[in-house]
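PROTOCOL LOG
Step 1. Enter all chains and additional molecules of the complex.
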Amino acid sequence: MCEANVYLLDEDGMPRLYLESVDKIIPEGDEIFLENIFYQRKQIKARIKEMALVEHKIILEKLIK
Amino acid sequence: MCEANVYLLDEDGMPRLYLESVDKIIPEGDEIFLENIFYQRKQIKARIKEMALVEHKIILEKLIK
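Step 2. Run joint prediction.
Step 3. Record the structure below.
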């Protein structure tokens, strides 16, 4: 399976696991909707900073308003 | 390998293959930088509309300015 782990950068810029085995990623305005292969869903105000699919890694950065 | 094919929506909203076997995706402002496993690189003014990683599919939508 080719899902990826989604990490969120913390205040120190360190990636923290936010949701594992993510299949679907849908950005909508300033939010990102995530769904993993276990049908867990999360929604967060963030932007995609970087994706490295071969490493199964997606990095998100929180949007501060 | 867990790369994905990147499609760009055409004027009729139909997905057209833009770059195959993409590993790295880095959004920068209103541009997206792509690199595939063959080290081919492309850069486009677009936004990520939807990703379905288990299907190896990423859909981009061109930004019209």
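Step 4. Note key features.
The interface with chain B takes residues 1-4, 22-27, 37, 47-54, 56 of chain A (CB under 8 Å).
Chain A has one domain: 4-62.
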